[in-house]
Amino acid sequence: MQRYIIRRVGExxxxxxxxxxxxxxxxxxxxxxxxxxxxxxxxxxxxxxxRHSMGLDKPLVVQYGLFVRDYSTLSFGNxxxxxxxxxxxxKDRLPNSLKLVGAAMVIVVLIAVPLGVLSAVYKGTWxxxxxxxxxxxxxxxxxxxxxxxxxxxxxxxxxxxPSSGMGGLDHYIMPAFALGFFTVAAIQRLLxxxxxxxxxxxxxxxxxxxxxxxFKVVWKHALRNSLIxxxxxxxxxxxxxxxxxILVEVVFAWPGMGRLMFQGIVFRDxxxxxxxxxxxxxxxxxxxxxxxxxxxxxxxxxRLQ
Amino acid sequence: MMANVIDTAAIxxxxxxxxxxxxxxxxxxxxxxxxIIVVFVLAALLADLVTFHDAYQVKLPERLVPPAWVGxxxxxxxxxxxxxxxxxxxxxxxxxxxxxxxxxxxxxxxEVVVRQGGSWSRPMGTDPLGRDILTRIIYGARVSIIIAGxxxxxxxxxGTLVGLTAGYYGGKIDTILMRFxxxxxxxPLILFAILLVMVLGPSMMNVIIAISxxxxxxxxxxxxxxxxxxxxxxxxxxxxxxxxxxxxxxMRHLLPNVMPTLIVLLTxxxxxxxxxxxxxxxxxxxxxxxxxxxxxMLAEGKEYxxxxxxxxxAPGVAIMLVVMAFNxxxxxxxxxxxxxxxSI
Lengths: 305, 344
Prior knowledge:
The complex is a heterodimer. Chain A is an all-alpha fold. Chain A has 14 helices and no strands. Chain A has helices spanning 2-29, 33-36, 44-53, 60-72, 86-121, 126-138, 143-157, 170-199, 202-209, 214-232, 234-251, 257-266, 270-298, 300-303. In chain A, helix 8 (170-199) packs antiparallel against helix 11 and helix 12 runs antiparallel to helix 13 (270-298). Chain B has a two-stranded antiparallel ribbon with strand order 1-2. Classes of the chains: A mainly alpha, B mainly alpha. The interface between A and B is large, with 49 and 43 residues.
């Protein structure tokens, strides 16, 4: 177990290291990074100044050291547009993004699990067809279009839900559902096939022979084991939610990291985009590490390896 | 004499290729998804022949014309003051104030056309810059297919090569290559692509590079797994004994045997690449305007959701149909070619 944890932590650090190296080199190999850090109309003096302050006149290794030092002390540079530290913006917006992802996770669990179970139990009936059709749709509809459709229906036509910004619980419904839709589809498919496999197994036969109710057999015995296959991919689902969150935030004008990044793209504000990408990637890498370790604790087959 | 008859079947070379099954499988093909794919490919190829409008030319007077089946939008207004028709048009931004004539009195209820209906010359209406949406959807298919094709060819090709190498040589080479693949898989693709496009500047080439740079890892992993299984088989040992070079074994003996898996993976990922490209264009980090790309069209229409729903509906439906078609075909191929691989 300890070795497993050490290996996973090492892998995560390696991934972060690789990401930072790639970003670092990408910026320096493809042109003058000082130009990316300044508005287009900046003078030559300003350019020299920023070159010096970024340490671009020093060897690459030293430059990388400076880059890592800045990021590990949470100084992400100044936004080109507002001239304020990127950290200030990120600090306010990160919790909002996490709240949205959290709400989406709740929706995913509430919808995907019953849907997966129902489609496996009623395999081949119209319930299965409906759930599978739902999953096929979920994997083909781009989240941002889904968001736009929801706004058209629930805000413009029906006037039931607010279309933008944060506020009460009603502000969460549409963004969280739009964000979770793809993942619901993925989990439903996975859960259905692993449940069908579980229902064929010996221990389910035994549970049935013991005379347990069908409800207990499915929801307690079969589901427990099938959920492991879903939890294994937990890290991937979190990565998907964080990435898709950017798109959803843009559609629903959610005051989070994604919207910050979108504004950064529009205004060619490189320090902002760089910071959001690195922070989001760190969140993704870190959360998949946590999921994997938690999963290892839950599953003795990994714990005892 | 019976004893001298040699059973020729027993000395046939080992052939594990499952490719012929592809042709047999077409008997139960999913017709609708295949039709969508054919239409999509034809539209991309023949875009110049099947469109009647310019995909780029801005015509502001014809902006936001609704689809053909939408009639005039009218509202009932009470005449509050009798003013000249020109004046009134300015006031409530009418395109036509048909019902007003000099006989209208203050207090009369009149029907006013606020937006004229569509016509079949522009079946799906026009966008905020007056360009024909159907034309742009068709040219957008070309953009999608170029990006999906190029990214899958580069990323898939490179990944397959890495997978073959890792699986064939094993040992240290395998460990190092797979570590690289795992690190790449840990990156959130869209984030990585956005950053790359920010640095290199938005262009079709850079979108292709960004997607391929992440895409290869998946192929490397899956193909390597397949190759590891094949390496245990006799025909590889025989090829070695017969003096075939490493390259020859990889290309002539291993590659044909991983082909079915490769085809399934490629088909399943077309839709995914199209969605990623649309997402990038939607965020402004993909295909730069005015090139018609489905994601970009959605972004342009985003501001008009309350007044002109058709601007976002057409590209949305296009993405959904094409992605769904490729996913369904991929599922079907997987089922046909390789029942073991159902969880790719």
